[in-house]
Amino acid sequence: MAESDCIFCRIAAAELPAQIVAQDERTVSFMDIFPGAVGHALVIPRAHSRNLLDVDPDDLAAVALAAQRLAVRVRERLGADGVNLINSTEQAAGQTVFHFHVHVLPRYDGDSLRLPWTPAEADPAQLAQLAERLR
Ligand code: AMP
Ligand code: ZN
Does the pLDDT of residue 1 top 90, yes or no? Predict the structure, then answer.
């Protein structure tokens, strides 16, 4: 995708409006316009990458640090009781904007958000086989 067609590149370049809450040499953090929780924000690298699979490792590290700073801030300033950091990589995982980003999702005691899966106990043999394939 050409960077001029990427909405997050355009936000990073200040060509599109956003409620920016923090920025540094490598990252920009801004409010999500369709929030899933009060204070839901996104952290992006300034440099374009599609997602977790191709992001520059130094940009990934910078995004992780910026997300940690924002997580601390949503606790201090918004009174969040917890935080989920969420990344969706590729359409199968629900990615809709193809510029790497991490969601900083403040959580509040008793809120109605749930995990996107239903935990079910694994078959130990299958776990061992999968682990072997991943080593
Ligand atoms: P994902 O579905 O993980 O790719 O997340 C993309 C996120 O970007 C969604 O939560 C959208 O609400 C958010 N989003 C899309 N366009 C904008 C925008 N112009 N400003 C802020 N957030 C946006
Ligand atoms: Zn981009």
Answer: no
Give the chain's count of helices (H) and strands (E): 3, 5
- Ligand sitting nearest the alpha carbon of 116: 1
**pLDDT at residue 35, as a whole number:** 97
Element (H, E) at 16: none
Q: List the beta bridge partners of residue 44.
A: 28
**103 given a catalytic annotation:** no
Residue of 7, 8, 34 to test ligand 1 pocket, by largest number of atoms within 8 Å of CB: 34
Percent of the chain exceeding pLDDT 90 equals 94
Closest C-alpha residue for ligand 1 atom 22 = 32
pTM, to two decimals: 0.96
Q: Is 95 in the pocket of ligand 1 (CB under 6 A)?
A: yes
The ranges assigned to domains in the chain are 7-134
The answer regarding whether domain 7-134 maps to CATH 3.30.428.10 reads yes
